[in-house]
Amino acid sequence: MVAQLAYVRRELAAPMPPPLAARGVFGWMRYRLFGSLLNSVLTVVSLALFVVVAWPTIRFLLIDAVWDGASRADCLPETVGRPVGACWPFIARKFAQFMYGFYPSDQIWRVNLTYFLGAALLAQLVIPRVPYKATNAILFFGVFPVVAYFLLVGGVLGLEHVETRRWGGMLVTLVISFTGIIVSLPLGILLALGRRSAMPVIRLLSIIFIEFWRGVPLITVLFFATYMLPLFLPGSWKLDGLLRVLIGVVLFAAAYMAEVVRGGLQAIPRGQYEGAMALGLGYWRMMGLVILPQALKHVIPGIVNSFIALFKDTTLVLIVAIFDLLGQLRAAFADPNWATPTTLFTGFAFAGMIYFAFSFAMSRYALYTERRLSTGR
Amino acid sequence: MRRQSAEAGASRPHRVAFYNNPTVRGAAYQLALLVALLWFGYEFALNAKANLEAQRITSGFGFLGNTAGFGVNQSLIPYSETDTYGRVFLVGLLNTLLVSGLGIALATILGFLIGIARLSPNWLLARLAGGYVELIRNLPLLFQILFWYLAVLGTLPNPRQAVSLFGGVFLTNRGIILPAPVAGEGSIYVFAALMLAIIATCALARWARRRLERTGRQFPTFRAGAALIIGLPLMALIATSFPIGIERPELRGFNFVGGMRLVPEFVALLVALVTYTAAFIAEVVRAGILAVPRGQTEAAQALGFRRGKTLRLIVVPQALRVIVPPLTNQYLNLTKNSSLAVAIGYPDLFAVFAGTALNQTGQAIEIIVITMAVYLSISLLTSLAMNWYNARVRLSER
User: How confident is the model at residue B9 (pLDDT cuts 50, 70, 90)?
Assistant: First the structure.
């Protein structure tokens, strides 16, 4: 017999809410900020550090900033009558120089049109939902560079010829990054394939090429391209200064790209190669149709990361007297008409925001692609 | 039907045209590549010869013995304008090694601190470290070098209105003035004691490790070593009645006298390299620590290890295996990036040799080849050393 129980609970008791100190804002603060003595000290120190850095920055950029004016006098504390932060009129006055260098001002529409075409094509390429990826890729990587070249350089269809010496600022930064990216990618793929080739001479040459460029700083490569390369070419060839730098950047970037692609190639199981060979595909078709599509997909984040590195590295061209954004910034600092105590910080803040925006956007895109591609596996 | 079966019947290896034979093709491709390369090399050499003759530049390394005739604002060895290009090379190389060595040490410390802070349970601290890493990693290094040099150090006041820190450190637009240690008579004994203490500590650690492996008994190596390294030189100091003093910089007229002056170029380069590389090292460290499975920590706790010992004996050794290879890369990057000194005029190898010396002599080929060779050898040596370490910490599996 079952003993008569006075009371049997038929349903589960509802869980009691956690104590007030462990939930909500208080619980979060207790565990994430003031869990222990050390934790509390760290919180206070971090908060102090944050305030010490953030508040003056906000004051400098927004509250104390001067928003309009015509010359340095408008940005001096003596004229304004209060502590002065960023001198934004300086940026406004120099904006064209930062964006286009000394590109003729009546021809700037050509640069803007190139920017617009590039941005429009790129947007369609990076948004996964937009169809016609292959067509877009051909347009962006194949057609756009040619169009951009003739638009920017001119000399055809009645467009005025603009020497690259007059290019500068953001234009040069973007031209170098873009050329570096679209040329170094195929070159890097070839080098990576060469490094994994069965032919000993090709493998050895690829290894030497890759390790050599990866072992030296980019600035020596730029010096090599600027000062040494012309000596090796026939004296009648006059290489454009920008072109020389582009050659250096491409060689350097290709070596890094090759290592990224090699990582992807190594991740492909042997069965894929054997399957492709069993289907009777030759080397190039096996690579182009079976191996590379998988390998490149694996390493998209790595490729984007080398693009970020390349984008940041374009600043080095200012050392060989090509005036990219940072070079133009430095040139603008020398202008006595805008010499104020805050000009330097204003200029760096402006250029920093541009560099940060580009690199940050690329790194977020790499993260996003990584997450999107990893869902299938 | 009949033809098919006839073909199938003839299943002995049917003849392939020789140009379709993979071995022959491979050999032909490689030969063609080699011939093309040799031809390019030959053309390059011819052109270089003609161009050099046209510019009246004598090739060869004889220029290294010529007088350089330019000054250098920081040198670890005695140097004057009458010294040779060979000596300039040495001065530059030492400066590169100085800034890289110091940079690597400081960036490692800062990078580990920030990497650990990013994993802190403290929300605010983790966010702050994350913000630092994102900000620094997404700005070009040259931008940061110029920022420190032009905007931060360039706008410091002149020596007469110097910003003073801790009473002995002065920040001026001519550099950072620090108190300098001055070694008097008898200080050699103190250094000898320090060296002795370091050697003794190494020997002690070895012995303690052997004993631990043999008997399982532990020895407080860290405390004993600390006592040795602090105690012995201190005793030597007392015995020789304090020969090592500190010289405080003093303002005389328009500049500081005494103490140690770090030129602004050096400070800007070092600060930029350290903060930049530390952000990358922080990510490496974070990835390494996250790569150690949580079960390892939990198992250590279950075995009764305290938090400190869990970290030191369980987590860190395993994390190091993941950390070391990318960390090597960061060290190499820092060394290579130190060549950006040329942008602000810190006399490193690249600035004095590939910069000034190249401009003066026009010996582009020799100078660029030497410079590249130096960086290549530094890269190779560092990766060799790190590979050796890597092999030591590698997990020895069955």
Answer: very low
Mutate to test the interface with B, among A193, A197, A228 (most CBs of B within 10 A): A228
| Tokens 């040259």 sit on residue | B142
The predicted pLDDT at position B226 comes to 87
B169 or B333: which leads in pLDDT:
B333
Judge if A218 and A347 occupy the same domain.
yes
Global confidence as pTM: 0.84
Q: Are residues B16 and B149 in the same domain?
A: no
> Which residues form the domain of A316?
95-102+167-374
Residue pair B115/B238 in contact by the 8 Å Cβ criterion: no
Indicate whether B126 and B9 sit together in one domain. no
Q: What is the ipTM of this complex?
A: 0.86
Query: Residue B371 is nearest to which of A220, A318, A351, comparing CB atoms?
Result: A220
Among residues B388, B396, B397, which one has the least CA distance to residue B325?
B388
| pLDDT tens by residue, B71-117 | 777 777 777 777 778 888 888 889 889 999 999 999 999 999 999 88
Task: With CA atoms as reference, report the closest residue to A199 among B38, B37, B41, B24.
Answer: B24
Domain count, chain A: 2
Across the interface, do A202 and B337 touch by the CB < 8 Å criterion?
no
Out of B44, B141, B368, the one facing A224 most closely (by C-beta) is B368
CB-side neighbour CA atoms (13 Å) of B57: 20
A360–B122: do the CB atoms touch at under 8 Å? no
Query: Which chain A residues have a beta carbon less than 8 Å from that of B141?
Result: 312, 315
Segments of chain A with pLDDT less than 70 = 1-3, 374-377
Contact status, residue B346 vs residue B103, Cβ threshold 8 Å: no
What is the spatial distance between Cα A278 and Cα B142, in angstroms, rounded to a whole number? 51
Of A205, A231, A359, Cβ closest to residue B51: A231
Q: Is the pLDDT higher at B66 or at A248? A: A248
Instruction: Output the pLDDT for position B14.
Output: 65
Q: For residue A41, tell me if it sits in a domain.
A: no
Taking CA atoms, B136 is separated from A122, A170, A312, A355, B278, in Å, by 26, 20, 12, 11, 9
Q: Report pLDDT digits (tens) over B251-294.
A: 776 677 777 778 888 999 999 999 999 999 999 999 998 888 88
> Contact B122/A39, CB-based, under 8 Å?
yes
Same domain, A145 and A171: no
Residue of B nearest to A345 (CA): B151
User: Same domain, yes or no, for B152 and B270?
Assistant: yes
Total of domains in chain B: 2
User: With an 8 Å Cβ cutoff, are B140 and A212 in contact?
Assistant: no
Give the CATH number of the domain where residue A363 resides: 1.10.3720.10
Asked, for residue A118, whether it belongs to a domain, the answer is yes
Interface touch B150/A199, C-beta < 8 Å: no
Task: Report how many Cβ contacts below 8 Å link chain A to chain B.
Answer: 153
- Same domain? For B141 and B34 the reply is no
In chain A, what residues touch B138 (CB-CB under 8 Å)? 308, 355-356, 359-360, 363
pLDDT in the model for residue A334: 85
Closest chain A C-alpha to B83 CA, distance in angstroms: 25
